[in-house]
Amino acid sequence: FFKTFGKILHLPSIFQVPAFVIKIIFGEGASLILSGNKVIPEKAVVRGFHFMFEDHESALRDLLKA
User: Fold this and answer.
1) Are 60 and 2 in contact (CB under 8 A)?
2) H helices within the chain, ranges in order?
3) Which residue, 2, 30, 1, is CA-closest to 14?
4) Are 13 and 2 within 8 A, CB to CB?
């Protein structure tokens, strides 16, 4: 997320948090943050839901109007 954020704003991505800090803050949920997951909302898509943005970069660009 922060790499994409920096890319959109043309800034270096220097903000890094050590994994152990993420684990302390988020406990068992840290694995989702550290490993990442591609989530496909299959039920919503099958029922015809249309997402405005297909990825986080396009959503961030819209939010930041970059």
Assistant:
1) no
2) 2-9, 19-26, 30-35, 42-46, 56-64
3) 2
4) yes
Helix (H) or strand (E) holding 10, with range, is none
Residue 66 pLDDT > 80, yes or no? no
Residues 6+ apart with CB under 8 A from 41: 49, 51
The token duo for 34 is: 């550290």
| Interval 20-65: pLDDT, tens | 998 999 998 888 778 877 778 889 989 999 889 988 899 989 998 8
Report how far residue 55's alpha carbon sits from residue 57's, in angstroms, rounded to the nearest whole number.
Answer: 6
Instruction: Report CA 63 to chain centroid distance, whole Å.
Output: 14
